[in-house]
Amino acid sequence: MSGIAPTAAPVLPIRGRFRPLGLPEVRVTGGFWAERQSINAAATLPHIEHWLERAGWLRNFDLAVHGDLARDRRGREFSDSEVYKFLEAAAWEIGRSGNADLESRFRAVVRRVAAAQQPDGYLNTRFGGPGQAPRWSDLEWGHELYCVGHLLQAAVARSRTRPGADDGLLDIARRAADNVCETFGPDGLDGLCGHPEIEPALVEFARVTGDDRYLAQAALFVDRRGHGRLSDVEFGREYFQDELPVRQATVLRGHAVRANYLAAGAVDVAVELKETSLLDAIRIQWRNAVARRTYLTGGQGSRHQDEAFGGDWVLPPDRAYSETCSGVGSVMLAWRLLLADGDPEYADLIERTLFNVVATSPSADGRSFFYTNTLHRRELGTQPDADRPSLRAAASLRAPWFEVSCCPTNVARTMASLTAYVATADDDGLQLHQYLSGTVAHRLADGRELCVTITTDYPHDGRIRVRIDSDDDRPWSLSVRVPGWATRGATVTLCGDTRPVGPGVVTERRTWRRGDEMVLTLPMTPRFTYPDARIDSIRGCVAVERGPLVFALESVDVPGVETVDELRVDTRRPPRLVDGRVTVTCRRVRAREHGWPYRADEAGAAPVPGDELDEVSLVEYHAWANRGPSTMRVWLAEAAE
Amino acid sequence: MSGIAPTAAPVLPIRGRFRPLGLPEVRVTGGFWAERQSINAAATLPHIEHWLERAGWLRNFDLAVHGDLARDRRGREFSDSEVYKFLEAAAWEIGRSGNADLESRFRAVVRRVAAAQQPDGYLNTRFGGPGQAPRWSDLEWGHELYCVGHLLQAAVARSRTRPGADDGLLDIARRAADNVCETFGPDGLDGLCGHPEIEPALVEFARVTGDDRYLAQAALFVDRRGHGRLSDVEFGREYFQDELPVRQATVLRGHAVRANYLAAGAVDVAVELKETSLLDAIRIQWRNAVARRTYLTGGQGSRHQDEAFGGDWVLPPDRAYSETCSGVGSVMLAWRLLLADGDPEYADLIERTLFNVVATSPSADGRSFFYTNTLHRRELGTQPDADRPSLRAAASLRAPWFEVSCCPTNVARTMASLTAYVATADDDGLQLHQYLSGTVAHRLADGRELCVTITTDYPHDGRIRVRIDSDDDRPWSLSVRVPGWATRGATVTLCGDTRPVGPGVVTERRTWRRGDEMVLTLPMTPRFTYPDARIDSIRGCVAVERGPLVFALESVDVPGVETVDELRVDTRRPPRLVDGRVTVTCRRVRAREHGWPYRADEAGAAPVPGDELDEVSLVEYHAWANRGPSTMRVWLAEAAE
To answer: Do B539 and A540 touch (CB under 8 A)?
Structure first.
């Protein structure tokens, strides 16, 4: 066991309730996530590389050296960041699998990036070159600091998975970060970036390099936000969280990706600098956002207009923006809070978001993506051209690439680093937060080496078997999370003894012996879920869930039905598991056609009841839209009683 | 009676079921609309002129002559059009009231506009000047043809209200229109405008000038649309109705103002050129838009993102865009269809839209405006600064001016020309479509002069008294509309005989004598209205209407209640009229606070019932938000039984 290496993970805080485990301590050996990690490596990463080249976003770096960027540059302001996110994803994947081919492609991309860096460390293909807008001339929309942030995160991933690698990425990042500190330091430009990202990146870069100057710069950026330094825009300063200081806000608001990235950075700063009040503020923002502004899937953002959080309880399923990237950002934030506080609610949201947002974005083949993740589709779509990028980030169809293509690379880096979100340790033992088949090995601070093997078919089966694979004479704690949805029927079995457990953390402290087992059994009966009455848009509707998975009614599963809006669900009959499929009983209704859709008589406005259908199969939400054009609902209208 | 002048009205088709009456045939003497016309003249028009000057949009015309437009021009691409819409509004107002001061201000603005016209007739302050983008270089977003369209409509208004006026506006318009025809004619640029408006304007200009070249050009623009000549944009070509030829579309779609303006122009072309299939297509589009894509208020457009129609049944009250301008456009379209076909449903929608959208936009003092007209406001807003333009067209608060300030000028021109939508004639008599106190006088084609006086407190009283003020030995027809909402209880009284009538048109043909009366009595009991079950966003809700007015629950009317979302309406007790106020019985509920707003137990998700309140007063929807910050709902959640 002495081969256990230092943790390689995206987030390594100096302190907190739990220490994260990452590569190589956590290994995934099979199941839901293992499959997705394979597809990510085999299909998604090459797909992204292909599109970065094809769209010209990689070539922009070459043009910075040899060409005329002002004339020939391709892509939006932030296209550099997609290259960096690809590098980050590749770094995690190389760390995970040691893929030699990917290693050489990674190095080739780093060389192209390196060539474009200016002597003073500035690195951006959109600003500052001959004929281009000056550096830092558009902090609202220019995304320069945002791009540096993703460069730093790529370097963090690389230097943790291949410490001392001679590819030069860490040095490129260090020079870019130094340039940021010199430019935006206490005596420099009193500005900040319209899209947060540099904040968590600088903190992590400080953790990697041990240089607190980066941390101080991150703290400065967090402090500067919320005072109207960015100019007012059509969507208001709330769009980039500049209308209210971070410490004063009580809920996540504005652009949902920006909000989550900023909050993640604020947690990082708060943890490093022991800023209790800052951490308290983010906790409150997170709790309120989860209680009032989060979709059943964990998705966040209900406005297409500005990709933003709506007001409290504004969660329309049909206009759910629920951007894939805000799902990624939400996982980033909840993970940081979990490490800081240890509360299982954070892991609950991570689980929900990973299964129902992050896993929903890529198609089964890993080569097309949802940018937004709607919960209701009324019209049969047409399959987007698999060979053309989509102009429309807001289209509710998986497309191979987008003009704004943040989501595919965000999915890729999350999938490649997924093992980092599974388990943690403290001085007394291990905590398991997410369930998949694999192993967790960790050396405690006192030198004891702990190792467990997890075997499960979760999320399709509720039994999670944790076998101890290490021997130790002293007691240590093993904790498992009972998800918030497991309100009834969960049990833990230890050495033949089974006892009921409720949502929260179950900790067993004992002198574990090799071969000991702790079995967590979660209740996997499909269930109806009812919304808070304040969510106007889904009044009178129910959803169906099983375990952590949200289900959807998709028209391809209902013969003869093109639009699932014609169906009403009979809530007197609970959903059932039939031959591995979750089913509900539905009635078909036929709407009356009116010239004017508002009627004085209630009965006249109601649809005409039609046939009761046999049990209708639902689809796991993440898997919908993989079988051709379809209509879909997560929230099903209840049949009148 | 021989003083009856030729009709002055915005739309004078060559043929159709009815001929429109306008100034001076229809005079308004008092009541709801008379008040608003007074405020429009006394407050809104000077307010607009002030802002056009202050925002620099008028000065742009001066810069075209003496300055550097490339450097100093202010405002968006379409700001010229606001100047033209002001001229149109002023022309109608001068025609209505003969205001001499306004006449001289009108002339002063025309002189400034005239000076900016190029020798070949081209007129636009945003394109074509030194250092500016070339003419017609951005048909998607440039709005050049759109601006010409509004210039033509101003000239139409002026030449109909002051035929032969020596201000030069008609000539300016003619030269601009000629330039359009020369540039975009059959052998010219094969293009069209991203924002329809030139189409109806050219047809009307052909009607004014008698020059069919303008009509042919309008027809060409209508034919060119829908073939992808405009480039694809983020919102898709549907945004400017360029994804499908006008004759093939079956519903209004895309940007709601664009859609209505285009359809209005298509009706104009169809009527002039007897293009039956084109007219049929627009009828179908209108019917489907009204049945599936229109708010209870008559408002259209449910997407903030692209100011567009949503899909069928996508009508969220809280995100209702319902742009004031799309209400104006909807009135324009329905009026043209009414003239062509005579169906009362068109007048029903006009009535609903005038009372609940157009009248809602301006504040009580006529100096601030809703751009969008939401049906649900959850949060107390803050009163916008009465001295600052709003950046945010989508903000649900009345503001004095906007960066995109299309709505105030559109309200002004509609209010000033409102008499044009009241009555029509055919060879056999008069038809009254909208009810207000005033007179209608008209000389039939055979020379007979008809005159009636209407006396009513509509919409606050249901009795509409029509007195005949002319004598004629031959019979003629007098028609009144029984609105679609008057499903029960309407009566007509003629010479003491009262009979029940239902929705539709009631026509009485007789030899009318001076002093004869026809009294239409409409049922004014407040009523609950239920939505079609396919409108997901208002399931389980009811609205309250009285006559043509939609009502709202506004927090300022409920002592101790800040958010009206806490209230549930008891639908077992019908709304009542109490001392002139419409009231409903409500129960207050208290939501349970959950960390996660989706629950496995239905009862746990439901709110806790609280006190039953006494009868709560509702506000006429158009009058809401005139008493300080408030929350508001049109659709009220029903109390559980």
So the answer is: yes
